[in-house]
């Protein structure tokens, strides 16, 4: 869980730091999605702190606070407080402009919620360093919080189930699509304007069997992961296959944020 905290915190920090120059275009009232439009189409349960901001300085102040909390969450400083601010911020950004959100935003929110429920910050964190220093000064080593607990194990299992469910439904959605069943999905992906790469297409055109292998291999990994990840004998192979799959998404399709978040999960 602590490694997930560090990884997810780093990913969110970098993601929203790069968005800083464009906060008014992406989430401002005069940007791509005016607030009045969002308030008309949103579900009543959808809430965002940005619904209540009007002055530009409020946007800048919150975005700066959010980035500071992301950094604190990553290094484990005042973790019990800042993790909730990071979760509220992540949900607020998603609900403020639904047109920008896609699968990884909901995965991040789900992982953050689990990390908020878990007692993170007890290891690999500045909170642990502070606690150990205080214990040495007061000679109260016995009062240090344990690294693990029953609740920590429960949250770890919940995160594992979360990732297994994500893989399962990703595979099921692909099985409903003809391009995946026909083995052509990877070719079609790289012919779109978003992911067009001439070098990759030249290789795939010359060796089209690679398209079929990559297409069916993706489905195989995603459908096998939720069933075979629990056995000790098959776990290392499924972990390696899942990490390899998302490394390909990052390197070949430029989905670095999505790939990194999935690997951390």
Fold and architecture overview:
- There is one protein chain.
- The chain is mainly α and 265 residues long.
- Helix content is 71%, strand content 0%.
- The protein is built from 14 helices and no strands.
- It is globular, with a radius of gyration of 21 Å.
- The N and C termini lie close together (9 Å).
Shape: globular
- The chain-level mean pLDDT equals 89
What structural class should be given to the helix and strand makeup? mainly alpha
How can the largest sheet be summarized? none
Question: In DSSP terms, counting alpha (H) and pi (I) runs of 4 or more, how many helices?
Answer: 14
Provide the low-confidence segments as ranges.
none
Helices and strands, in order, run as HHHHHHHHHHHHHH
The number of strands is: 0
Short summary:
The protein has 265 residues and is mostly helical. The protein is built from 14 helices and no strands.
Keywords:
265 residues, mainly alpha, 71% helix, 0% strand, globular
Draw up the topology in text.
Layout: H1 2-18, H2 23-27, H3 35-41, H4 56-75, H5 79-96, H6 103-117, H7 126-138, H8 150-175, H9 178-181, H10 185-191, H11 198-206, H12 209-228, H13 235-253, H14 256-264
């Amino acid at each position: 869980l602590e490694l997930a905290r560090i990884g997810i915190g780093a990913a969110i920090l970098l993601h929203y730091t790069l968005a800083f120059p464009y906060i008014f275009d992406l989430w401002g009232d005069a940007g791509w999605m005016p607030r009045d439009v969002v308030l008309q189409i949103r579900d009543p349960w959808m809430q965002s702190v940005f619904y209540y901001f009007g002055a530009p300085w409020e946007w800048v102040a919150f975005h700066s606070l959010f980035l500071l909390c992301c950094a604190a969450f990553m290094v484990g400083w005042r973790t019990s407080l800042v993790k909730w601010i990071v979760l509220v911020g992540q949900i607020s950004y998603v609900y403020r402009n639904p047109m920008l959100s896609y699968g990884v935003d909901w995965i991040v929110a789900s992982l953050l919620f689990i990390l908020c429920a878990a007692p993170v910050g007890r290891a690999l964190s500045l909170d642990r360093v502070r606690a150990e220093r205080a214990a040495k000064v007061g000679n109260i080593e016995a009062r240090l919080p344990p690294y693990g607990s029953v609740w920590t194990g429960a949250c770890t299992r919940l995160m594992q189930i979360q990732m297994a469910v994500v893989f399962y439904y990703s595979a099921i959605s692909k099985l409903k699509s003809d391009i995946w069943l026909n083995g052509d999905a990877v070719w079609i992906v790289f012919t779109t304007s978003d992911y067009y790469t001439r070098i990759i297409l030249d290789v795939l055109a010359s060796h089209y069997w690679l398209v079929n292998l990559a297409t069916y291999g993706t489905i195989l990994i995603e459908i096998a992961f939720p069933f075979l990840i629990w056995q000790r004998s098959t776990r290392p192979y499924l972990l390696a296959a899942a990490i390899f799959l998302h490394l390909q998404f990052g390197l070949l399709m430029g989905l670095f944020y999505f790939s990194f978040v999935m690997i951390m999960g």
